[in-house]
Design goal:
The protein is mostly helical and 351 residues long. Helix content is 71%, strand content 0%. It is built from 18 helices and no strands. Helix 1 packs antiparallel against helix 2, helix 10 runs antiparallel to helix 11 and helix 16 crosses helix 18. It is globular, with a radius of gyration of 20 Å.
Length: 351
Amino acid sequence: MADACVWLGHLEPAARFLRDGLRLAEENGAPFLVSTGRTTEARLDWLTGRWAGLAVRTRALVEEYRDLTSMTSELELVLGWLAAAEGNWADAGEHFARTGADTPEDAITPVAVAGCAGTAACLMAGRAHTEAVAAVERALAVVRGKDAWTWAADLAPVAVDAYLATDRADDAARVVEELAAGITGRDAPLATAALARCRGTLARERGEAADWFREAAAGYASLNTPYFAALATEQAAACVASSAPAEAVALLSGVVDAFDDLGAVLDAARSRRALRNLGGGKSPRRGRRCYGKNLSPREREVARMLVAGLTNKEVAERLFLSPRTIEQHVARLFRKLGINSRTQLRPHHLD
């Protein structure tokens, strides 16, 4: 029940079912059920924005359940989305590849479909639009064959973006129509919010997108999915930036805070840049402070990307900063950590 609730978007009931289910499984010595519950819990934490320490916990579960593909594929999905939110597209792609995304017809359907969506998002980030379409079409074939549109909340928005990027507007519209028909009469709030987001994307050229993105943001917020709510709000802000810049600034200010709270480095940098372009530069909410020998939030962002293997130039591009600024951050974090090169930088330095 918890697993079904998470996929559909009923996250508060999911938390209650998990609490009771894990207790009963542990009391009755049912380790396999405990493993399924803990795996579902990781996905629930991702959706509800409880990201602090989530990557470490999820990697530990992958190691613990390394012989249980049904568990590890779902955990890899969580790791993939966390890596993508930090802009570590190479790592994200590797995680998504281990979800069954290459052969979704032979994998656990909702996990593989979401894995295809993640793979497509990585390809879109690298402007490999044709390859992204191929990834979404693998998943769409399964969704259509099983009439499983209630599981397409991750897939549909990426599919629409990929089709539009390849000048296939009719195919994008078809996905939206199929999603709408596929969830009619079904209690799938996560897919319903995704549908509003898809309609907003289609309506951009007609100047009617803002209301759809606002509806999507409200839907995601009501489900307690802060990351998706922030993404939809950011899209709404982009729609009104020219006609109502003050409203866009207000929306983006909240978006920056939301992304910062989550640790969504890439998204925070992008929205902060959009805010600066509107003349609404935003200082950290706590104001300037001295971190002493501790890494500042920005230095942690840079360090995470260096650990992932990115060059200074690549870090600068992801954070929308100059290479010189990144060099200064790198020099300070090296000095604080007492190291002399990136080869000495280790994940434990971020703890």
